[in-house]
Design brief:
- With 196 residues, the chain is α/β, with parallel strands linked by helices.
- The chain has a single domain, classed as Rossmann fold.
- The chain is built from six helices and eight strands, in the order βαβαβαβββαβαβα.
- The strands form two sheets. The protein has a six-stranded parallel sheet, sandwiched between helices. Strands 5-6 form a two-stranded antiparallel sheet.
- The longest helix is centred in the first third of the chain and has 15 residues.
- The mean pLDDT is 93.
Length: 196
Amino acid sequence: MSSGILYIHGLNSSPLSVKAQQLSEAMAGLGAPERLLVPALHHHPRQAMVQLQQAIDTLGGNPLLVGSSLGGYYATHLAHRLGLNALLINPAVNPHRLFDGHLGTQANLYSGETWELTLDHIAALAELEVPPPERGACIEVWLQAGDETLDYRHAVQFYQGCVVDLQPGGDHSYQGFAERLPRLLALAGLKPDSTF
């Protein structure tokens, strides 16, 4: 039984993202909104990791990590380091290798905040790299082949020791997320799931 859910949003995203909002509504519907934390992460990985550790400490016990995109990379690191269960949604695999040509000004899609992506950001991401999870790791990965931002094949290869659910079509935001919330809540031990 987990102590709750920590939702980890992606690069230039926020707690206002569609998935975060859908999950918040589901937790409210269960009468357990306090068992979900969705921190607004700092753009710098080192500061984001401090925020995430604080959130884990606040939830206590063994929260389920739910990470989307870059949040999936963060969740993978935390699951490896702390032995936590994780659900990854179109996760970034070793994103520090993907930023060639992307240094410079970035903008948060929700707040409009602008910031500079620097070599220090990339170095900080590299510090979080972990080996591929071993077979039997308590990590489930949801991928959609239509992801226009990340090549899903990298995740298929990296997470081959995990439960990987690959759907045709879709996109980077993961279409149909709301319909899959019963499975997510079941992974967190919050609701029985009759679909699996």
